[in-house]
Amino acid sequence: MITLDDICFSKAELTLPDRKNTQPEKLPIPEATLKAVAAYRLAVRPESKHKALFLSLHRPYRPARPNTIGYHIAKVMRAVGLSSSAYWLRHSYAQNLLESGASIFEIKEMLGHDDLESTQKYLRVHIQLMAKVLFDETL
């Protein structure tokens, strides 16, 4: 769960303290995302004693549960014609990292895995990328 304390607006940085491998991670926040979070915090987020960034939609305002957020992400994905789950985004992230040249070791770290076996499950063989790397050819 991301809390208000995890976001450093002055450094444009997000600290993820609770990761799968229990090692905190600091990630940059793109300017557009930072502005959206600031606008949400100032204009939309209800007052609450809870520090969670995202709260339930109805009183009493409590931290939004991960399955609720996943439900809404999946709902939006279906609305735009994607028949997948929110977890699919994690697989897409790993695949995009691979296609942009990240090593499996870098992807392992970015996904917060302890071992390579967990990371390998996320990566499909990309035939075009493999042909380019092995044979310096484009299919």
**Rg of Cα set:** 18 Å
The SSE order reads: EEEHHHHHH
Backbone structural class: mainly alpha
Helix residue percentage: 40-55%
The main sheet orders its strands as 1-2-3
Gap between N and C termini: 42 Å
Number of helices: 6
* Percentage of β-strand residues: 5-15%
Total beta-strand segments: 3
Tell me what the structure shows.
The protein is built from 6 helices and 3 strands, in the order E-E-E-H-H-H-H-H-H. The protein has 139 residues and is mainly alpha-helical. It has 2 domains: 1-64, no CATH class; 83-139, no CATH class. A 3-stranded antiparallel sheet has the order 1-2-3, with no helix packed on it. A hairpin with a 4-residue loop joins strand 1 (7-8) and strand 2. It is globular and about 60 Å long. 4% of the residues are buried. The mean pLDDT is 84.
Core attributes:
139 residues, mainly alpha, three-stranded antiparallel beta sheet, 3 strands, 45% helix
Describe the secondary structure blueprint for this structure.
Layout (H helix, E strand, L loop, with lengths): L6 E2 L4 E4 L8 E4 L2 H14 L21 H14 L8 H12 L4 H8 L4 H5 L6 H9 L4
Antiparallel strand pairs: 1-2, 2-3
